[in-house]
Amino acid sequence: MSDDPERIRSFIAIELSEDLRSRLAALRNELERAEHSFVRWADPEGIHLTLKFLGNIPLRQVGEINGAMDGAVQGIPPFRLEISGLGGFPNLGQPRVLWIGIRGETQMLSRLQHSIDSALISLGFAKEEPPFVPHLTLARLRQGAFPEERKSFGNLARSVDFEGGYPINAEAVSLMRSQLTPCGAIYTRLSATKLEHQKTPRQPESSL
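Below the sequence we write its predicted structure tokens.
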């Protein structure tokens, strides 16, 4: 699938460390089963703590979004999060999505997400609905999965001795580009805004 040359699929997120991505890859290896062909796994290299999905935006709007991000982080210092246990939407009895929860300074995280959400309203982006629930998505179950298949996968997830506590040091928010290809999504950082950003010049990122 190719992008419209004048538009890009994008979102705002906190990026994860390589150590945490490695742990997520190990967890996937523990849970992945050949008989669970109805499960679509997220590539650990592409997992982020997403704060706001923007959809397909015009290239010309990137500068305005960067400006909104600069304003949104004012007065919000870096903070620390960590991963917690496995969960599912709507639950692990009949999961449609498998995720890892987030704990730590979650009030600061909610404040940051709300500030970004509010800053983007003036640019035409809708307020986040339903309310923000911080998590890392590990897998999605195909829509046609049978109830017994969902139950089997949920039971497997419950049986894994998963150790949380891996840190997420929230020091910046990134504007990310997502390019959809037959082999999966390719993610590129367009810009990064440090928390409590003042007038520090932006670091150049990969070209569009």
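The longest strand covers residues 79-89.
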